[in-house]
Amino acid sequence: MGSSPLGQLLLGGLTSGLLYALLLLGFLIVFQVSKTVNFAYGHVGMVGAFSAWLAWSSWALPLPIAIAFGVLLAVIVNSAIGIIVITKIPPDRPGLDLIVTLGIFLFLTAAMQLLIDAKAHAFPSLGGGSRVVIGGIVVNANDIAIIVLSLVVIGGVHLLFSRTTVGMALRASAESPAIAESAGVNVRMLRLGVWMVAGVIAAVVAVLVASRLSVDAFYMTPVLIKAFVAGMIGGMDRFFAPLAVAVGIGIYEALAIYFLGASAGTPAVFLLIIIALAVIPKRFTAARHEVRA
Amino acid sequence: MSAAQKLKSIRILAGVTILGLALTGCAVSGSGSGGGDAAADCVPTDIGPGVTDSTIKVGTTMPLSGSGAATGLATRDGQQAYYDMINADGGVQDRQIELIVLDDEYDPSTAQSRMRQLVEQEEIFVVSGGEGTPNFLGSVPYLERKKVPAIAPYAPSDQLGNMSNPHIFMAAVDYITEFQSVTEYILEQDSPSKVALVAVAGNVGENSEEGIKNEIGDKDIELLYIPETPGTTDFTPIVSQLTQFGAEYVYLVLTNADTGGLLKAMDRVGYQPTAVAWGGMSDSAYISEYGDVSQGMLVALETANLSAEDPASAEFMAKYEELTGAAPTKFNQQGWVQAMITTEALRNAEGLSRGCVIKSLESFNEFETGIYPPITWGPDRRDGVKSVGVAVIEGTELRVLQDVK
């Protein structure tokens, strides 16, 4: 056992915050490419993780295969949302995507309760039992996996968007799909690819969250809400700012619970929205405008 | 519309949606309408709501979704199995019993709303059992106003089982008694200097704390109480407080999922005190899911242990499996006994009015269920049972250390 409770607390907050950031990342790439708010995103991950649990516990599949199965399902569900549902929404109806995906959120909740059940189930700890003490802080394999995976994925996505031709094509198709199409960019395939990658991210986050808590048809809702809050504060058309806010929310929430009690956690996060939007200069939260020659 | 305007619209809509979702998750206590029409006295010729020539409608709310769903679903199934058995044998007072259970999501305001629906729209005759304390407590003021008897809900609380709420007939001990009994057992076996309690904030946690304190008395034992909110996503802050305090025993009065989540978080940092849990953790459904992080956990025993070695338990287990095709869990057992008690009250009532059912319940004297200790109620008594046992989780089994007296 470690000897630094504050350090332990900060590590716990960091890992929670990185999970929020990773979920937000998947949310952001879809929003920034297709201007869609997918409120069912957390439940896409839930479908993946809950299915993985079913495959592992009831069908006795080896855990890696069960998780791969869950990820595949999440990719299919998220792609279906993007290609079948979202594309049908008229572009002159802003906010309709939020309502539609809220409906999908409710549908997925009900569907998974019906197909599996409404109970909470234990998910394997994924390295939670392997630990080492560093500077008085107990660090276990689960924490390390979250930290490393988050940094790799966030870094990788940033590089993809900023340094590759694919990334350039994605940004072009986000700015103006028509012009991008005329320049030879296959906008539809690119968007499908983004929805698929986002599905993978959602499933991975959901599996990691389940490994630390439990899995059921509802457990990703608070995670998505906090990720969404981070996006609103940091700006959904930015990259590092909202992700940093997400990590900050994880640490801030942990401190709030530690000093004020468990019931203070969620209200503290919502208080943060109010304070942040009142205090942060608008130029940091407003949509950016690029000057074109 | 420009991208900036669209973004602004989306932000506003998103903000409203988040606020709405957050508010639906918050417990908001409401007040029901005033008035009531249940008879205070027993008039045998009166017929109460929910009673027809062929059926008697009973109902309750339970958590059928969310973090408390495991126990609610199992309790509902246990009740339904018992009523199916009774109905197959001809029912009660020549009537079939119809059970309606609505989902209260383990939330007090939702429970009150659903109970109002049961009483006013579904017109149930009596409340048959129930599961969960904060949610059920949300309905109590309404039930008292409407004078609807509630029979043996599993809602341990010091607010119930007394004449402050005379329409609620309790067959489960409150958490004060439960944890006083368990602490008595612990202090007979060991001499800890520090113990901690992590419990659902509110009445549940406060009662549990009081029970532990009652037994500690003036002994030199420090107690740390950490209130918890169901559905917590990060248990690290709680674990940090526990490790900093250094408790040798940690009492847990949480939902199944949250108990498992906290024990996992404790395991991740290598913190391994002796865990002590409320009676719900003696359920095989909990042990099968979270048994690997719960080894050696002491649990309060509120019902007879589901063991083939006990004749009454063996009979119940065989009957339940015959009816449902599945072995019963502790909460199936809870539901079964709730239905048994309700059926007995209806069977012995001089008439099918609420006043007559209340009179029937008040006549219970050492009523044997084979599951709970003998139940006794009276004109001035609403706490039917006053004892609890202790068991320990070993492997996938529960070993009884101190039987339910």
Write up what this structure looks like.
The complex is a heterodimer of chains A (293) and B (405). Chain A is an all-alpha fold and 293 residues long. In chain A, 72% of the residues lie in helices and 3% in strands. Chain A contains 12 helices and 2 strands; from the N terminus they run H-H-H-H-E-E-H-H-H-H-H-H-H-H. Chain A has helices spanning 5-34, 41-57, 63-85, 96-115, 141-163, 165-175, 177-182, 187-212, 221-234, 240-260, 265-279, 282-285, and strands spanning 131-134, 137-140. Chain A has a two-stranded antiparallel ribbon. In chain A, helix 1 (5-34) crosses helix 9 and helix 9 packs parallel to helix 11 (265-279). The radius of gyration of chain A is 19 Å and the shape is globular. With 405 residues, chain B is of the alpha/beta class. Helix content of chain B is 43%, strand content 15%. Chain B has 12 helices and 12 strands. Chain B has helices at 3-25, 69-88, 108-122, 133-146, 175-189, 203-216, 236-245, 256-268, 284-290, 311-324, 330-348, 354-362, and strands at 55-62, 96-103, 126-128, 150-151, 168-169, 194-200, 222-228, 249-253, 274-277, 298-301, 389-394, 397-402. Chain B has a 7-stranded mixed beta sheet with strand order 7-6-8-9-10-11-12, sandwiched between helices. Chain B has a 5-stranded parallel beta sheet with strand order 2-1-3-4-5, with helices on both faces. In chain B, helix 2 (69-88) links the parallel strand 1 (55-62) and strand 2. In chain B, helix 2 crosses helix 11, helix 3 (108-122) packs parallel to helix 4 and helix 5 runs parallel beside helix 6. Chain B is globular. The model of chain B is unreliable at 22-39 (pLDDT under 50). Chains A and B meet through helix 1, helix 4, helix 9, helix 10 and helix 11 of A and helix 1, helix 2, strand 7, helix 7 and helix 8 of B.
